[in-house]
Write a structure and sequence with these properties.
Mean pLDDT: 95
Shape: globular
Structural class: alpha+beta
Largest sheet: 4 strands, antiparallel
CATH architecture of the largest domain: Up-down Bundle
Order of helices and strands: HHHHHHHEEEEEEEHEEHHHH
Strand content: 5-15%
Oligomer: single chain
Low-confidence stretches: none
Radius of gyration: 21 Å
Helix content: 40-55%
Number of strands: 9
Distance between the termini: 26 Å
CATH class of the largest domain: Mainly Alpha
CATH topology of the largest domain: Butyryl-CoA Dehydrogenase, subunit A, domain 3
Number of domains: 3
CATH superfamily of the largest domain: Butyryl-CoA Dehydrogenase, subunit A, domain 3
Length: 390
Amino acid sequence: MNTGIDEESFREVLDTVQRFTRERLIPAERIVEEQDEVPEHIVSEMRDLGLFGLSIPREFGGLGLSLSQEIEVVAAVGQAALAFRSVFGTNVGIGSQGIVIDGTDEQKCGWLPKLATGEVIASFALTEPDAGSDAASIRTRAEREGDHFVITGTKRYITNASRATILTLMARTGSDGAGGISAFIVPVATPGVEVGKHDRKMGQHGTRTCDISLDGVRVPEAAIIGGPGNVNLGFKTAMKVLDRGRLHIAGLAVGQGRRLMNEICAYALERKQFGSRIADFQLVQAMIADSETDLIAATAMTKAAALAFDNGQKIAREAACAKLFATEAVGRIADRAVQIFGGAGYMSEYPIERIYRDVRLLRIYEGTSQIQQIIIAKSVLNGFGQGERH
């Protein structure tokens, strides 16, 4: 069970982050959008606030938040452009959690304190040109040579790769399928690692995703997460990380949903048509009501799944449900926001146009909506077959 930090300390953290988001991040959104880069002084402030170490245990220098607490902080930062959260997101989630969950004591002591401060940036290198949703089909190989492995392959769309110090990297060490994959900690400075140019994307400008090529990258067997005894167990590590990461993304969707509702309400109460505020029109009210319902439901699902995780329960189904619903819901809210703003919602002068593009990616990464549906359906059917009834 992970109770996180005490309530009074957490409220101080959350209040600080909310103020930082309002006063520092939201005013800098246009700069990030235009320059496709998060200013370094803001990154430095994030380090000072401890945002890189939200989920890393206190014994290793992190804030040691429970997942329920992390979700609230992420939702607060998530009211600003998603690029800001992306800067520290891999350290909090998929880049570090394999080490937190399955790492050896030496790996934890060696990397987690530096990840917590942001001195080290971690990326999660799973996706490949021919292996995205079907993660078990990765082709990157790690061939054993004595007490080392030599890794060759290509990774695609790797978040923060151009900023990364280390990679949590999945490579095939055994037979085909999920049972032949190992998870490695690979320093980006290792000879043979080459990071490509950053991708130009529809939205989320300021985030960094790149391809990574690995050509004869030599690492010791001690680089396997969990040590040499964990060879071929990397897929299990990846799935543990992704279950947790999906709730992180659901929390992010909740944050963007809150921002959208604030923008919608402010505009609807100010904008007039036919001599009345558009907020007084029943069809506009219906879209606002549907959006608020989506947001409340997404918030409740995400919080419930995070609490179950903190209580030590298996939450693969619940995480998939929350990620599916919250990310689809914020897409619906964003679409209604454009409609309520009308022509103004299609113009970059207002933030709605950017948010509409930004949230589209939430339904794709950390497992597409369709992958979540498959996970949910299989879990329900397997449970029913074993006597589980609703």
